[in-house]
Amino acid sequence: MPALETYDTVVVGGGPAGATAATDLARRGRSVLLLDKAGRIKPCGGAIPPVAIRDFDIPDHMLVAKITGARMIAPSERRVDMPIDGGFVGMVDRGPFDEWLRERAEKAGATRRTGTFERLSRDDAGLSLVHYRPRAAKDSDMTLCVRARTVIGADGAISQVGRQAVPGADKVPHVFAYHEIVRSPAAGVGDFDPARCDVYYQGPLSPDFYAWIFPHGDTTSIGTGSMRKGFGLREAVAALRRTTGLDACETLRHEGAPIPLHPLRRWDNGRDVLLAGDAAGVVAPASGEGIFYALTGGRLAAEAVDEALVTGDARALALARKRFMKQHGRVFFILGLLQRFWYRSDWTRERFVGMCRDPDVQRLTWQAYMNKELVRSRPAAHVKIFFKDIATLCGLAHP
Predict the structure, then answer these.
(1) Is 332 exposed, middle or buried (0-12, 13-18, 19+ CB in 10 A)?
(2) What is the mean pLDDT of residues 91-102?
(3) Distance between CA 88 and CA 86 in Å, rounded?
(4) How confident is the model at residue 390 (pLDDT cuts 50, 70, 90)?
(5) What local confidence, expressed as pLDDT, does residue 391 receive?
(6) CB 178 within 8 A of CB 163
(7) Neighbours of 333 (CB within 10 A)
(8) Which residues of 258-290 are buried (b: 16+ CB within 10 A; e: fewer)?
(9) pLDDT (0 to 100) of residue 110
């Protein structure tokens, strides 16, 4: 039998988290295998804030649209516009965008393989063995195997790497998301604006999350999400398309996938396996935003793995979660509270959309989103918003 290939790290999953981890480790001189299942595109609004464009060197040609505002639609059909003052949010098409990230990893020195992860085992020396089915053998029982000093599981919300190696990885609740990619209509058709994201807070479209219309240049994502079992996601999207006049648009593809609701309590197995991206649960509550946090999680995973390889101390793997939560844990906590309080009924959703009319709410929301940090420079505005929240939630103020 030929000797097994051995890598410093095998990254399972080639989305934003996995591809970024592979790129960063390869740039550090590590031998990396990036294993990705071909043809998988996650349902995603595709929003990328300016901080991600800057920190992860996203070129302008990958942005298929530049959004300059959002519109919130309440259960009563009242609409609240939230323009971005002097900036934009970039939009990407996940198919080309994810492939560009994988190509960047390969150019940095990572080895790419297309195949499906099967299982983990160990050799006589205790190193991980990653078993996978190559793409060419998808209709057979043939599997291949490589040896890994470390493994990064970036294989999505229901991570097979996590379920096999990390305690608790199978116990995180999920929102299930579904969207349809359609050919974009001309501006003004059905109130469509190619530079605006529309967000629908309406129970019939989503009883516990929201529905959306997000322009992607030549195409548009129309979708919804819910964690309520039995809720008809396809029917909700069909209803949204009918009421907005977008049902006549050509449907190019449709996708569905689970989205985790909060970060896992543990991202590593204490030995040689670390999770990143959706596999680690790093999707923002309330907004469902995942690309920026996946890119960040992939980078932090690469740093932690490299430190573990340098020192030989597996405890370094836990630094990925520790550093992520230090940077973003407070934002995730606040967004989780927002989702639990404001998304629970059409009564609260109506008041939430009404609250979005406030200039201070709009300004602080966009500043926090664009820069991915809580805004501390205007304490008086925070106090005012807090009391407005309480009054609105208690029904003491008109939404």
Answers:
(1) buried
(2) 93
(3) 7
(4) very low
(5) 45
(6) no
(7) 13
(8) bbbbbbbebbbbeebbbbbbbbbbbbbbbbbbb
(9) 98
